[in-house]
Amino acid sequence: MILGRPIAKLLDVVTGIAAFCMVAVLAFCFINAKFPLIREPADLEALYRVRDVGVMVVVGLAGLEFALKRSIIIFIVFSILLAVAAVFMFYSFA
């Protein structure tokens, strides 16, 4: 989509920032697994939710950036798949 190219440039910056933050969260999760810094179950659950949602955000942003540079059909299919994955991800938290 020609219209999506300027938006894809913005998504590139946002995706880069989100990916940088997710690497930090993932590194902390791995360090916490080896050396338990957080011991409270509620805090661990919140950390793992942030990890799960963050991974979905980064993958979703990267996929949208890719889909915006392609045809409208690819964009629609990816958007539907992302929406389904997000709905079931949040449904599993309940």
Characteristics:
single chain; 94 residues; mainly alpha; 3 helices; 86% helix
Describe what you observe in this structure.
There is one protein chain. With 94 residues, this protein is mostly helical. 86% of the residues lie in helices and 0% in strands. The chain has three helices and no strands. α1 (4-34) runs antiparallel to α2 and α2 runs antiparallel to α3 (72-93). The protein starts with a helix and ends with a helix. The mean pLDDT is 88.
In brief, what are we looking at here?
By secondary structure, this protein is mostly helical. Helix content is 86%, strand content 0%.
The helix fraction, in percent, is over 70%
How far apart the termini lie comes to 37 Å
Mean pLDDT: 88
Note the total helix count.
3
Number of beta strands: 0
Rg from alpha-carbon coordinates: 16 Å
Instruction: Name the shape in a single word.
Output: elongated
Low-pLDDT ranges? none
H/E order of the elements? HHH
Q: Report the structural category.
A: mainly alpha
Strand content: under 5%
Major sheet summary line: none
